[in-house]
Amino acid sequence: VQLVESGGGLVQPGGSLRLSCAASGFTFSRVAMSWARQAPGKGLEWVTSIHSDGSTYYTDSIKGRFTISRDNAKNTVDLQMNSLKPEDTAVYYCAMGATGRGTRGQGTQVTVSS
Hints:
0% of the residues lie in helices and 49% in strands. It is globular, with a radius of gyration of 13 Å.
């Protein structure tokens, strides 16, 4: 199993970023996928998940700002992040399963700062 995140960076408050996760080594279309994040000095926080049937779930703090999507033909899961806030600063991880605590990638840093 391999999960490789990309797309992180530095963005000003109110800006947007799109994270992408390339998955391999398992039957991607059959597995729920999620994004989790870890802010400095804090624990891992589940952010969002998308199930094999396309149903999506979001933590309250990002509802209406973030959108998760998947492409089963390309084995990718993306996270579109809009209206970013300083409190969204964290390392973002792509993970197998719906909880964000399954097998994860190496993470990508997102920093929201002016």
